[in-house]
Amino acid sequence: MGSYLRIAGCLCLALVIGSCTPPTLRERDSGPLLDSQPVYDDNGPWHGSLALLTPDGGTIPVKTLRHLTSSEGRFGGWSAMTLDPDNGLLTALSDRGYWMRAPLAALKGQQPPAGLPLQMAALRDQEGQVMTETSLRDSEGLITLPNGGAIVSFERSHRLWYYPPAQGEQKSPVQNAAQALPTPPGLELSPYNGGAETLDLLPDGSLLVIAEGEQGDSQTTGWIGHPQGPWTTQAPDVTWQRFQLALSDQMNPTAATVIPGPDKIPYLVLVERSFSLTFGFRSRLSALPLAELLQGSDQPLKARPLADLSPPPLNDNWEAIALDPRPDETQDPTLWLMTDNNYNSFQRSMLLGLSLKAIVAALQHNDG
After folding, report:
1. What's the pLDDT score for residue 345?
2. Spatial CA neighbour of 334 closest among 54, 55, 66
3. Euclidean distance between CA atoms 283 and 270, whole angstroms
4. Residue-level pLDDT at 12
């Protein structure tokens, strides 16, 4: 989280957040239960439709908005997620160093809402031991690799770690000992809570890292990492290419994913967020043609605002995004987002499904 949360933490919210701190970190990989309740569903008996507003006055329909809870005290704080369309499993990462995997069908209410098992595990360090020090387990970004391994980015102690694929009876790659990746040059200069918040795997296999930066900054730094070999039980070397991303409206990036835009041209969709004591959390989606990112530039790249995520009941701390390319019953793929509830009883862990067709139409209108 950025420095704006530190300000709020100095006030009364700190008491609430502190009272909601999860149990002492321990290793347990199965057993907790999941509950998913609708806040909104376009197939439900709701009064009127729910949609995001675009800068030109258009709308992006909301397919579903779910409130997620669990009997597992570690559930929450979701800062990153990925989705495997082959098996329909959603994997999420908490900023307290926890890994979670659950069927997307259960999370979006297509299976019985209660009593469903979900896998959870705690991140390990480079010696294979469960991390216990808070400053070391602030995990913010997640990549799940085609080989079954994972890459995790951390704030406070700024770094990227590779977890080889799970073996034997392991349920998660994060149960393996971590391997340090070469640090993007300059990442160590990031603000204490403004490091590698955004992490994604690009279509060509390169890595995308964007620092959150400080709220109010005019730009932040990003990197594209080029692996110098395959991901196996050992991490390859990675070379880094730096770029600058322009910031506006007090917004900072928290997550990104690539989608097929107009004419199937790939776009990078960013989640951006701000916080103030007056207005609380504000969030939006922005977009950037992937070609602009990959071609390199001496000037800061400018993502175009795409949609507002701030009106009730959507307003919260949106931090994670992933695309499900599988078409639904209307032949429309879905863009999914999740919130980080900060283990705060005044916030929620929410899952939001958006129409990809409508997002592509909005991109086409903006570019036109």
Report:
1. 85
2. 66
3. 10
4. 38
